[in-house]
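Q: Sequence in, structure out?
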Amino acid sequence: MKKDSRLTRAKLETLSSAELLEIADEYGIDAPDDLNRQFIIGDLLELAGELEDSEKKKEKETIVLSDGEEEEININVLPESYNETKINVILRNPVSLFVWWDLNEWAEKKIRSEKASLRLVVYFFDSLEDEKPEDMFDIQLSMEDREKYVIIPGSKKIARVDLISESLGKSDDILAHSEKIVLPKGGEIMASKPGEKLHVSKIMELSGAADLLRRHYNIYRQSFY
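A: Exactly. Output:
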């Protein structure tokens, strides 16, 4: 019988004495065969309570704050923020990027106090070594935004995304920038319009490039203008 820390009296009362002894043996409880079943149930319930308390303690971790106070946190729950200013980019598919970012408390307070605005700047490069982009565009953000999907224009090779704060009368502040990411060569197909003849390899044709283009056009029609 499988160990279970969620043993209840109602559940144990339904078991035979032989089954209770089997469970007691699995948990390392030394119970003679002639021991009253109520004593066995009592020992099992006591042990189950200890196991439950132990599991709860494993889910908590105590941290010491700067002022010397202790705070208990749940280590099994992911925080909404890791209190760092950072931006990341991954390919969602051959024609779009997924960008997500975070702001530390100091940066967010500074932006709000200066009534600054946030934006993403998407840069495109011809190679990983290039420092000067060959193209770029902006995406305006709200302070509550933490992620965006970005459509990739056709024929682009390398992309990088910066998170920028701008205040009236001040120069732009680059808060964070992503690593450069290599874009798939098949992306230029999405610059075509439905109905145009696609000059693609046989493998791309068999993969359903034309159907992908139609669906891409229907969903992201603005990227063709």
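The radius of gyration is 30 Å.
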